[in-house]
Design a protein that fits this description.
Distance between the termini: 42 Å
Radius of gyration: 19 Å
Order of helices and strands: HEEEHEHEHHEHEHEHEEHEHHEHH
Number of domains: 1
CATH topology: TIM Barrel
Helix content: 25-40%
Number of strands: 12
CATH class: Alpha Beta
Number of helices: 13
């Protein structure tokens, strides 16, 4: 698992080569404010090889936040990430490793009959109750998430996952009311608190697509304050002195800035954006889609682009995301070693200050 000593030694490797705020804190660990996402790429051996080299290049270049999920590329991403970390010159305890569970994963490739596969491999074997599935392929039930923690530990080949996310819980809102989703989350948080106590994970969180950045009347809205309350209750139930809910993940980039611009969460003084809400609640924020899966690289609006530091559109796009209030690390997915190095070099430039960032939206 990531440790304070190893991550701070990792930070010191880069000395003055990075800008002042490039490394930030998660608990007592130092983490890079540019992270590597592993969602992209076909489930092929060629992409496996490319991703392997990309992870190793990123770790060498100053990216020690690696984000994946059990379903990414049909479990192949987790397996490659684990192998690349083991083979890297960077020690495991200098790497902040995050993964997720929620979507039912295929194994290596998409089966010819996905529904039959889910029934045979997951429902019939008791891994998940069919009644807990949304869209036939998603569950946040405690027993299922527990099983996915085990699978991710095995895929990654690690003893401890630093941050384990419940993946896109808003998917469940298509099948059941919000009250039931919060109940499921609380029960699952209890299980995750137990996994923390057992040493299998260090922190847990919630990774979302829409849930935290849409208005309260949206079909996929979830109340972050309620989720925090349920996590505190879960910790109390299992006898932990404090919750280990540590982070959220939300999409955020120059073209998708709702996490900052939409006052979707009810704060103590009125509605506020999820970025501000999470920051004031003491949660770390990891941004997904920080480059919009390539859209940002194709061009940034000139009025914004001129405010950002960086030699390339990718660097300026990453610097936009990591300039937002409360953001710990901006995740950018790639299977190209040169691209991850380019993204890491964004950290040699200062991000926008708070006033300059606010001015973009005025």
């Amino acid at each position: 698992m990531a440790t304070a000593d190893a991550t701070f030694q990792y930070k010191q490797r880069f000395g003055d080569a990075t800008a002042r705020t490039y490394f930030r804190r998660v608990g007592d660990c130092a983490v890079s404010s540019v992270g590597l996402g592993t969602y992209l790429g076909a489930p092929t051996a060629a992409v496996d090889d490319a991703l392997y080299e990309t992870v190793r290049a990123g770790l060498t270049a100053g990216v020690n936040v690696i984000d994946t999920a059990v379903n990414y590329r049909h479990q192949r991403s987790e397996r490659v990430v684990g192998r690349a970390i083991r083979d890297s010159e960077i020690p495991r305890d200098a790497v902040f490793l995050a993964t997720k569970g929620g979507f039912v994963p295929f194994d290596g490739a998409q089966p010819d009959a996905p529904g039959e596969y889910v029934r045979r491999e997951f429902v019939d074997r008791g891994v998940v109750d069919g009644d807990d599935l949304a869209a036939g392929s998603h569950s946040i039930a405690p027993g299922y998430i527990d099983a996915m923690v085990d699978r991710s530990l095995s895929n990654l080949g690690v003893d401890t996952i630093d941050l384990y996310y419940v993946h896109n819980p808003e998917t469940q809102l298509d099948e059941r009311p919000a009250s039931a989703v919060y109940d499921h989350l609380e029960a699952t948080f209890e299980r995750l608190e137990q996994r923390v106590a057992a040493g299998d994970i260090t922190h847990y969180g919630v990774a979302t697509w829409e849930a935290f950045r849409v208005p309260a009347d949206h079909d996929h809205y979830l109340d972050l304050g309620e989720i925090i309350s349920r996590a505190r209750a879960a910790a109390k139930t299992v006898g932990n002195t404090a919750t280990h809910l540590r982070a959220i993940q939300v999409p955020f980039n120059v073209y998708m800035a709702d996490a900052f611009t939409v006052a979707a969460q009810e704060g103590p003084d009125g509605p506020q954006s999820v970025l501000w809400y999470a920051h004031e609640a003491g949660l770390n924020v990891f941004t997904s889609a920080s480059l919009g899966q390539g859209e940002v690289v194709s061009g940034i609006p000139s009025a914004v682009d001129t405010q950002l530091a960086g030699e390339t559109p990718a660097q300026r796009g990453v610097n936009f995301a990591r300039s937002a209030p409360g953001v710990t690390s901006a995740l950018a997915g790639t299977t190209d070693a040169d691209h991850v190095t380019e993204n890491a070099d964004a950290g040699t430039f200062e991000p926008l200050g708070a006033n300059a960032f606010d001015a973009i939206f005025e």
